[in-house]
């Protein structure tokens, strides 16, 4: 019993390449097309796309594309609902994309047509109007930089793209700067209320009382938290300003100011140690202050180290995430602080801290720890001997002489030394063989190959073995000289010839796509590199396209056969003949080798026992034997387009009575038969009783059978006794019928 081998089929691990350069945070405007794309390590691998956990399929809005190793998801005409998390999943890995479909900025249109300054009197009504670019977009109205509180006197309205603010029963305190603000634009108005024209003297208003009903309080927060200061200010329309260490604040992403009736607040986002300061709120002489204190936050590990098992010579990443952005941490191995070097790379990005260990060896095994001032985390690194696997095996190659061919395979690890052999002999690099290795790729290139280079190629490394077959073929046959189009008259020969690049090549000849075979009319042969088809005595049906097929290439040419002109030298002559005789028609044409056809009353005649057709040189004969009446008609001879006609007239033979009628005696009420025979079968006859012609009825029955003509008289009575006769056109016969009583 022979050796038994086990075959293990290894599936290639499908990886997403170049992940560090992938743009995973994507933004676009509504209506734009957006493309999400990855490149795989295996070109034939399949991927699945998901959005927020639901599988995506091809549709009019989403389109899945595959091109080589690229896999892409195309969002056509993005909508706001397309925002979310997208996931590309292979059999081994996945990659996430975050898509945001941003609303387009809303602008204020026709600003130049807006009246920005309005002067009104107390008690009057004023309306401020703008038009925005998006009919459904919201707007905010502000007075002197503060959100405007709506009520019975301040009303807003919208109609399509128009937005309006109406101030009813205007008061002196309504004077100021009004702003209409959208997400991407704003427009300012100035409203002025002069003293009433009806007052004879200027009005003197008493100073109003502005006071803080609830003052600011000191706030202490941890680093990274938000600090909020609140106060209550009366009256409601009093304007408040905020200061930090005496410097005026303006609203932005860090400093958020808000108002709700009498309540005012200032929120300071993402507080830092250096943000500790005095916060001041002032309004028309009223002032309140408070102190902001920021304490250092504890640096805790929100993502701890995980144990890692890796193969030697790989790069290992140990990663943690801390609770405070920018916090300092320290890496240690077996209690010894790790410093950046060729072996170790320390990276920090926000709250993420990474330790990269390059080209690990067994000496890198052990416990690794990351410490902050308030927390620590530890994990163990285990190093296994590397297991070299074959990712992409060698494939069989087929090429032509003098070409260059490259065998290539991919291993799971870079830097692996291998050996190439051809037909069991180790390959040594020279002018013909070139061996190269680039990372995981190993290749063998053969230059200017010959037929003798065909054989087996083997690559071996560690426990890896991959084989392939090299097949070298002769260069493809080409047609050096193609056959030319040919035009010949009928009966003349034609020749098609092609010259090939190689003498030993086989070809096939085709006419109109059907393979040709040698025959009496067609000769197919070859001479050296020439391939020839010879046609003799060309006919009209030989016209067409003739193709020489050499397998790798073809050449075609057309044959035109010109029809010869046929002339009638002697026309057909009319024949008047008697029934039963023979008729001979003769027509003479030129040229003499042309074929012709005979027709009678439009029906093509063929040779039979009675009809004989023959040709003697230029003369064509038609013989019709034993002429019958139905042979009469027009005889036509046609050769090509030439035609001759002549009538055939048949004279009928006289019908004679060859067997006379005999006298008969019949009894009353019986039937009696009178019969005679004529010279022609089925001849037309008439029966008479005396001089009266008889017609078929219940009394008389007449019929013929061949040459026999019969008359049957039924239910004989005394009145039937008479002389009966049978008449043809040329003869007659009579007999007497006598009737006896019973």
Describe the structure.
The chain has 742 residues and is mainly β. It folds into eight domains: 16-101, Immunoglobulin-like (Sandwich), CATH 2.60.40; 108-192, Sandwich (Immunoglobulin-like), CATH 2.60.40.10; 211-295, Immunoglobulins (Immunoglobulin-like, Sandwich); 301-383, Immunoglobulins (Immunoglobulin-like), CATH 2.60.40.10; 390-473, Immunoglobulin-like (Sandwich); 479-562, Sandwich (Immunoglobulin-like), CATH 2.60.40.10; 567-651, Immunoglobulin-like, CATH 2.60.40; 657-740, Immunoglobulins (Immunoglobulin-like, Sandwich), CATH 2.60.40.10. The chain has a five-stranded mixed sheet with strand order 2-9-8-4-5, with no helix packed on it. Strands 11-18-17-13-14 form a five-stranded mixed sheet, with no helix packed on it. The protein has a five-stranded mixed sheet with strand order 20-27-26-22-23, with no helix packed on it. It is elongated and about 165 Å long. Residues 5-10 and 195-206 have low confidence and may be disordered.
